[in-house]
Amino acid sequence: MLGVSFFNGFLDEAIKRCREGGLVVIPSGPGLACDLPNDRAYAEAVQRADLALPDSGLMALWWLCFRFERINRISGYAFLKAMLEQEEFEQGTSFWVMPDADQSEANRRWLKEEMSIDLDLEDIYEAPFYERQGPLSDPILLERLKDRRPSYIFVNLGSGVQERLGLYLKDNLPHDPCIIGSGAALAFLSGQQVGIPMWADKFFLGWLFRCITNPRRFVPRYWRAWKLVWLLFRHGRRCPPPVS
Q: Which single residue of 94, 166, 188, 225 could bond 152 by disulfide (Cβ 3.0 to 4.6 Å)?
């Protein structure tokens, strides 16, 4: 869809594929609607990903109703939760890119208390401010990762940023870790953002919980996601041409 080879299988299969290494992206509906036609670097990142999971319920519903093909939606929230429950992350095997100091501390505490993942401070990186569009690089992060050589890298940043950062790491790291753009999923689990029940996530209602909790922030964001319908109607399987 839209030039992206989305994975259409089940959660356990996706986790198995993830273990093989490479870039895993979980594009949100708003990200696809706004960034795909407007940012060539973002489009390249999602197209070159080794595993692209269909997170958008709106996209899955549209494809079923108008293309008559069922897409097994896998949300970033469900994927990360299952990944943490199934995998055993020993000291130093995972590395976590966090958006700020507060979320870093809360997420680290939750991982230790709930998942028995005791992260060393050297396995956490608080991201600087990245440019909103265009190719992205971070030499400081790259050197940290070359030194640590983790098997899994979790990029817990916003949609549009994490995909481009993930592609930069994929292209420049000397080893082949699994790089997961998990976005706000960890913040949901640790309580930094509104908790979403699994039944709500299953029935594509996570957006509603977020909008009710913080309407000023999330209502405009999800309103913009309706552009995705037009992109799907007009382009279908083809990638939208970049806006000049």
A: 94
